[in-house]
Amino acid sequence: MATAYGAGFHVIVGGPARHIPLYLGASWVxxxxxxxxxxxxDIELFRLGAIHLLTASLGSWIGLISSRxxxx
Length: 72
Description:
There is one protein chain. Helices cover 72% and strands 6% of the residues. By secondary structure, the chain is mainly alpha-helical.
């Protein structure tokens, strides 16, 4: 999921190819942080097996938007 978010974000916002690793890394880190935050806060909404999909996706998108903002 995190890789798809990072790649999709690059397709949506465009930019040079050198930003692809930045977006993928930011998405992976944000996804992991969001998942663990959902686990810590015990948020059970939109779980996919053991993955807290709502908080992980939210963390991934926050990481992506932040990385784009910091890269400028």
